[in-house]
Specification:
Elements lengths: L2 H34 L2 H18 L4 H11 L3 H26 L5 H23 L2 H30 L7
């Protein structure tokens, strides 16, 4: 592969890792907000956001589903989603930091974590049929390929310079 191609792939890798980092921060923030929000506050917030749309079109698919989900949102569900978002976000944030700092441990750890997240997302998709889960899983698959490619390059360079990626 030409050096230009490697450079371009590395740029795409960095952008995808930064996007994962932004997504991780959003998950962390969402988990914290969800943890501290009451179920009544969530229902009120969703009602506020969907009220006008449902008044204009009572059969609106998205607004109707959001309202239905919020009205059935239990404390146990809220706690699960808060924990899931926060733990998922923190794990990804740790891995993103490791990848951006070229820490050798972060490459295989990222591959394993993203693979596990993808398996769970596909499992959830089998129940929810959410297009968002499919898009996220496809993006994760692309990131996995980029991480694998970058890890091969880092290991090759690491063999030439053994002290480069310690720590």
């Amino acid at each position: 592969m030409k050096p230009f191609d490697e450079h371009r792939i590395h740029q795409i890798f960095e952008v995808s890792v930064w996007l994962k980092g932004i997504h991780a921060l959003i998950e962390c923030l969402g988990g914290v907000v969800l943890y501290f929000a009451t179920t009544d506050a969530i229902v009120s917030w969703v009602n506020f956001l969907t009220r006008e749309e449902l008044n204009n079109d009572p059969n609106d698919f998205i607004a109707g589903h959001l309202w239905q989900m919020a009205s059935q949102f239990s404390v146990a569900s809220k706690q699960f989603y808060a924990f899931y978002l926060l733990s998922h976000g923190l794990i990804k944030l740790l891995l993103v930091i490791g990848l951006l700092r070229n820490k050798l441990w972060s490459y295989p750890a990222s591959l394993a974590a993203l693979g596990a997240f993808m398996a769970y997302q596909l499992y959830r998709y089998s129940y929810t049929h959410s297009a968002g889960l499919l898009v996220l899983t496809i993006f994760d698959a692309i990131v996995i390929v980029l991480i694998w490619h970058e890890w091969r390059i880092v290991r090759r360079h690491d063999a030439a310079e053994p002290t480069r990626h310690l720590g």
